[in-house]
Write a structure and sequence with these properties.
Elements lengths: L7 E10 L2 E11 L4 E5 L6 H8 L7 E6 L2 E2 L5 H11 E4 L11 H5 L9 H17 L15 H13 L5 E5 L7 H18 L2 E5 L3 H4 L4 E6 L2 E3 L3
Parallel strand pairs: 3-8, 3-9, 6-7, 7-8
Antiparallel strand pairs: 1-2, 1-4, 4-5, 9-10
């Protein structure tokens, strides 16, 4: 995964919580449009890696470059603006707002838009994505009226609404039944290819992991292609 201009570059990253070392002198390059699965035992650093990649957390040392922009040196407000524009998150729990409809939930990341044209484009994009994932007929429902699979598909649309260059998914199929997991996995892969969006998935599902371009395993605070 070497590239002259990678989308993401982790340069000698270290991260600890208290006395527990999670990442140690960690380096990695991820190309634009790549799909990458991260697997490993619980507590090995998978979620910490995602949080740092998505600017939800910062390393103790080292640098993270996103399109050559050092996100590890940003202020909290700068990281927040960066995330909203460049990163889409899909978690094991969908985190939909229960008082908002499906359509309102997927448009939440666009609330910062000031331009009327941008708002109209976002609404049209939401309709297209909801239709693509079979959720348009549920657009006026509240999350409590949906199945887990439908909630997770809604969360996926929300992650895509700002057309991010990077999608980070943390156990996205972990709470789903086999059929719902297969549907979401298929759409993750298809949209990664169609939109050339970089996709990084943390998963315990080898069925999902093996559909990615690359599978890496956490071992001794590093990622390796071998167990």
């Amino acid at each position: 995964m070497k590239n002259i201009n990678p989308l993401l570059k982790f340069d000698n990253i270290s991260k600890s919580y208290g006395n527990q070392c999670i990442l140690k002198h960690f380096s990695l390059e991820i190309e634009k449009g790549e799909s990458l699965a991260i697997v490993g035992p619980s507590g090995s650093g998978k979620t910490t890696f995602l949080n740092i990649a998505g600017a939800l957390d910062v390393p103790d040392s080292g640098n993270i470059l996103f399109n050559n922009l050092d996100i590890s040196r940003m202020t909290d407000n700068e990281r927040s603006a960066f995330r909203n524009k460049n990163v889409g998150f899909v978690f094991q729990m969908h985190y939909l707002l229960p008082q908002c409809t499906v359509f309102e939930n997927v448009l939440i990341p666009t609330l910062t838009y000031n331009n009327a044209s941008d708002k109209i484009n976002a609404v049209n994009r939401a309709k297209e994505l909801l239709d693509r994932l079979g959720m348009m007929e549920h657009r006026d429902k509240l999350p409590g009226q949906l199945s887990e699979g439908e909630c997770q598909r809604t969360a996926f649309v929300r992650a895509l609404i700002n057309q991010p260059e990077l999608i980070l998914a943390d156990e996205p199929t972990g709470s789903l039944d086999e059929e719902s997991a297969a549907i979401l996995s298929s759409e993750l892969i298809s949209l990664n290819k169609e939109l050339n969006t970089t996709l990084i998935v943390v998963t315990h599902s080898m069925k999902l992991a093996e559909q990615m371009n690359s599978v890496l395993y956490f071992k001794n605070h590093q990622l390796t292609p071998n167990l």
